[in-house]
Design a protein that fits this description.
homodimer, alpha+beta, six-stranded mixed beta sheet, four-stranded mixed beta sheet, 4 helices, 14 strands, 22% helix, globular
Chain lengths: 225, 225
């Protein structure tokens, strides 16, 4: 990572613009055979201050749709990274398929997260069926902002990702979202332009939603996560 | 419960029609001060074969909306009831506010539930904002059918419940739903007629969705629920 032109370039840009960057990368794992699917936080001074390695790998086989075995080439992470302090609040990092597991966001919520991020490349069929519903569900049940940047369109030749980058408020409302793929077959490589969502996050809304609907967990009956 | 005309009547009806009935009741708690919010399963012979006492009580205070303190009058349950065998599959019982806690459905899923039920009386504002999204989320993340019968309209004088009874498939699709309240102020007591949803549940869809997207939990990192 210390020699990647991509990462070094982003660190330079973050510093120049005085803006943090949260970006997903693949980096070599120990042993040289696999890579890590890593999410890094570059602060407004260009320093990498936190990194999360994806915990849940995406091995799916959808009849008539994509077959993907992330575990063939990716090494799974071993830890949940406690929420980090950022200019937009205490932020919990997850990646893509992690979204299907409530446990990880519940842990981050318990540790104080006010913002949950899920940068992703969902497939088109699972994107259409699950993406927005699961993200809104995580926002509602954790009473936190959810920010999910999402790859959109055809890439690496045969893969097509759903898109629909989204920002959701702690009451579950969609505050902003970008384009999504409706018909995977109609997508051509390079056929999409980047899109930018600009949203103000008011952390008072987090406290307000938690006050309105207090969620007293029954950890006498099920384990604390 | 053994002397309630309501419950005895339902047991009689279940037996007469050879149909199971899953119904929520309030019954006296020990000590006589509070009640239990209980969900019972009456089998097709009219016998009560299972009962679940609501675990998470609903204490909310919504500015400009409802203030409700269920814990003032209701005694909380102490256990999750393992899924029961029914003619429509292995069924996990929850009630209303339990919906906001992923833990309870995750436990039931781990114990083999194919169908999750959430009979409810959501408020109108939380119903509009959260009801369908959370239910669809539970169906998707547990890859199970979700059946949620929901009280609809004005009752007990000042309470208005959202409605929108719903049946959801294990891929997250809404298979059927009933009317919902859009404007609480326009609701008058007795202004709604009962509605019936009739849906065939194909349990193969549960297995299919679990096969398509295997959810390998990281219980080496977070506790098994």
């Amino acid at each position: 990572m210390t020699s990647s032109p991509f990462v070094l370039g982003l660190q330079h840009e973050a510093q120049t613009a005085s803006l943090p960057i949260n970006v997903g990368i693949h980096e070599p794992a120990e042993g040289g055979k696999k890579v890590k699917n890593t999410l890094i936080w570059i602060n407004e001074h260009g320093t990498i201050t936190s990194r999360y390695q994806k915990l849940h790998l995406f091995d799916v086989d959808i009849p008539g749709g994509p077959v993907l075995k992330e575990s063939n080439s990716v090494e799974a992470g071993k830890d949940i990274v406690p929420p980090i302090d950022t200019p937009i609040g205490k932020l919990g990092m997850m990646i893509c398929f992690d979204l299907r597991f409530p446990e990880i966001s519940l842990r981050l919520r318990r540790q104080g997260a006010q913002v949950l991020v899920y940068p992703s490349a969902f497939t088109v069929p699972t994107g259409k069926a699950h993406w927005e519903t699961l993200l809104r569900g995580r926002a509602i049940e954790n009473q936190a902002f959810v920010i999910a940047a999402a790859q959109c369109g055809r890439h690496n030749g045969k893969r097509v990702s759903y898109g629909a980058s989204i920002v959701i408020g702690p009451w579950g409302e969609v505050m902003a979202s970008s384009d999504r793929v409706e018909d995977a077959d109609a997508e051509r490589e390079g056929g999409r332009e980047p899109q930018l969502l600009i949203v103000d996050l008011d952390l008072d809304l987090v406290e307000e939603s938690r006050k309105k609907v207090p969620l007293l967990r029954r950890t006498d009956v099920y384990p604390e996560i």
